[in-house]
Specification:
310 residues, alpha+beta, Jelly Rolls, Arc Repressor Mutant, subunit A, nine-stranded mixed sheet, globular, binds beta-L-rhamnopyranose, binds nickel (II) ion
Length: 310
């Protein structure tokens, strides 16, 4: 499916427009005649990006090129702003696009801190306003605001999986840190303390910003890693479980089943030779039913986590 520019832009002279998604619903894999800058403000979900499933949440920024294929799955209160752009003969020429929306090593994804998200808000609001206006100057103004936004993003963004944990409470950094270390043995309480939170405050902030718990976030990242490994390697399921940060391959299988509706080996059988297949939740399929039984274990574990006093 290719989204056509004429369906989303109001006039020929309009080269930037904004589609707030509050929430972003599930959306099938597609490409576009235009590019997109996606800024996630809260909630969570799976972003399928060129066949790669990415668990996304608060403060993430994506640069989606026209040729990229992407979609949203298993979304949960995912709130984002989608800024649509196409090259122009005025400010936003192709060179400027390359310069501002560059993707070193093809890396399309960055993290913003909460402070940066807040600072960018008025700019996004103004851009949204101009994108809807019929004032004769609105199009060129929107173009220039988009350039401001793109420069601000370059200045504010940090790598998606930054290694550093700052001393002060900076939520975006915590997410980036977890993403860098999720395959290792992570102690969430330790991460909380080292970034200036108590476990209780981090958990609360986590819920507010992402709609999930730190524990479940790690499970999602680990399962994402495992899915990729199942698809792209011939390693055994146990090896993959350990390499993805699990200590127990039964627990791994339970979590895997809960999140995908299939056991790891069933998933492997299904995806072999079928690149884009992901997140098969076919409820009536026997494998899905078997998987649901196994999944109770993962779920029960999480409930246990939630009840644990902090
Ligand atoms: C959808 C989703 C897609 C975007 C369209 C315009 O809700 O955000 O990625 O291409 O809107
Ligand atoms: Ni899109």
């Amino acid at each position: 499916m290719k989204l056509a520019a004429r369906d989303w832009f109001r006039r020929r002279s309009q080269v930037v427009t904004v589609e707030p998604r509050v929430p972003q619903d599930r959306f099938p894999v597609h490409d576009h005649e235009f590019g997109e800058v996606v800024i996630v403000s809260s909630g969570n979900g799976w972003h399928l990006w060129n066949d790669e499933p990415q668990f996304i949440t608060s403060g993430e920024v994506f640069y989606v090129r026209p040729e990229d294929r992407h979609g949203f799955e298993q979304v949960s209160d995912l709130h984002l702003t989608n800024v649509l752009y196409r090259p122009s003969e005025r400010l936003l020429g192709p060179d400027r696009i390359d310069e501002l929306l560059d993707r070193p090593d093809g890396h399309p994804r960055w993290q913003l801190t909460d402070d940066s998200l807040r600072q960018l808000e008025p700019l996004i609001t103004q851009l949204t306003h101009e994108a809807r206006s019929d004032d004769p100057h609105a199009d060129v103004l929107a173009e220039s605001l988009f350039i401001q936004l793109a420069v601000a993003l370059v200045r504010h963004r940090i790598p998606i999986d930054s290694d550093a944990l700052p001393a002060g409470r900076r939520f975006g950094h915590v997410l980036a840190y977890l993403r860098h270390h999720y395959t290792a043995d992570l102690d969430i309480e330790d991460v909380a303390h080292r970034s200036g939170y108590s476990l209780r405050t981090l958990t609360r902030t986590f819920r507010e910003r992402t709609g999930t718990t730190p524990h479940n976030y790690l499970v999602q990242l680990r399962i994402g890693h495992a899915k990729h490994a199942i698809r792209t390697t011939s390693d055994s399921i146990t090896e993959i479980a350990f390499a993805s940060g699990f200590h127990d391959s039964n627990y791994f299988s339970a979590c895997f089943s809960r999140l995908t509706g299939l056991s790891p080996s069933e998933y492997r059988r299904r995806v072999q030779g079928e690149p884009a297949l992901d997140a098969i939740a076919g409820a009536a399929h026997p494998a899905a039913i078997a998987a649901r039984h196994a999944a109770r274990r993962c779920h029960a574990h999480e409930l246990g986590q939630r009840r644990k006093p902090s």
